[in-house]
Amino acid sequence: MSISISEFISSHPSLSLLETRCSSMHHLRQLHSHLIRTGLARDLIATSRLLSFTATSPSGDLSYALRLLSHYPRPNTFMYNTIIRALSRSSKPDLALQLFVEMLYRDTSRPDRLSFPSVFSSYSLLGWVDGGRELHGMVLKLGLADDGYIHNAVLAMYATCGCVDEAALLFDECGDFDVVSYNSMIMGLARKGHVVEARALFDEMPERSVATWSSMISGYVRNGCDKEALVLFALMQGTGMQPNDNILTSLLGACANSSALDQGIWIHSYLENNDIELNPLMATAIINMYCKCGELDKALEVFDKIPDKALSTWNSMILGLASHGRYYEATDLFSMLQESGLKPDNVTFVGILMSCGHSGMVDEAKYYFSLMSQHYGFEPEIQHYGCMVDTLGRAGLLVEAEDLISKMPMEPDVAIWGALLSACRVHGNRELGDHAAKKVMELEARDIGKHAASSNILADCISSRLKIRKNGGRKERGGSMIEVNGVVHEFLAHGDFPMSHS
Prior knowledge:
This is Pentatricopeptide repeat-containing protein. By secondary structure, the chain is mainly alpha-helical. It has helices spanning 5-10, 13-20, 25-38, 44-56, 62-71, 77-88, 93-104, 116-126, 129-141, 148-160, 164-172, 179-191, 195-204, 210-222, 226-239, 245-258, 261-273, 280-292, 296-305, 311-323, 327-340, 346-359, 362-374, 382-394, 398-406, 414-427, 430-461, and strands at residues 479-484, 487-492, 499-501. β1 (479-484) and β2 form a beta hairpin.
């Protein structure tokens, strides 16, 4: 006599409890112990329910789920899919790939249409496009390439990994409108710097999701098109659609880069008025916005209100104080960071060394420079050497700065030689200045060659099969922006009149 799953669950009180009352790992462990005592721990349905809770519930425990899977003698496809999907959304997507390989070698499980999207997502997060290509080949051999769910996962993998040409080929195969495919393509193009093409796709979409607006706005900000990002957000507001965390964080970056203080204040107020909890990225973005707009006291006010500060939040505040020459406040904050239990990283030391340089604190800069390796155990990177050269140069210690450059474990870049050149001009050292200038010209000539080659590669990467309108993209002219009374005024090169944006 056959029995349905619901009947089986209702006939076992422990499983019914798991369905209705289990709200924590403590409860689940109690139920698991009960299943072991009653002999149900080897039951397929019972174990599947345990796995589902531990792997997918916010109160679950992925490590516990993996142990459950390893102890079950004959795990099936559902069990593997459940944990692979959870791992693909975690900080350990490489474990999802390992589990998928293990699944292939089991005689009790075979990957199905629900297995592959999570594996492609793992390759996307890791940036392992070669592995993604091999998996794509497997999908083609199994005849699953036409499955819409899998097709979008493959396209997203190529787009996320920067392979816009391969993504475009898949995009062209999409028959009916698919917002997921469009979003992946827009994101991929924007990440490669092709914002004109991304906007063309955006404009031709008959309907857009929040993810669509997020991809386009963040793409603009990532490529320095801050004005366009703010204008696009104004259009989004007209649709009545509510922005998500990613959009608001990107917009705060745009406000910071374009000194749009009033718009940044509006976004901050929006977050407060809607009781949106600040995650570390948002908190850092707000502080960075206020710092770049010159509102250091407001940034400190926000910083002080954050209960559990992430290291990125500390770094943003230290960098903000450093860039405005507030040395003592920056060093006080550095001491507080040390006392908080968090460990300073490379970015932290860039901020504190920058603060020393702007304030002429040479001995203090030397102390912090040595503190990196002697106390925290990591070697200075090129940015830290750049800060030290700048500090020594500002103080007129040109020979010492040149000696430090000669002892660097890596090749000095244009910024380092440029800092020395600037110091030589200020302090009148013609001979050393000529040497620094020669190095700057050599490195700039090399960079121009690399840039030309890179531009050719990117041009070839645009597929002729992209379904976009040609809208005559042109190189942006140089200019600057300033906000006055809530209006951002843009001043373009070659004497054009300023353009204003509300």
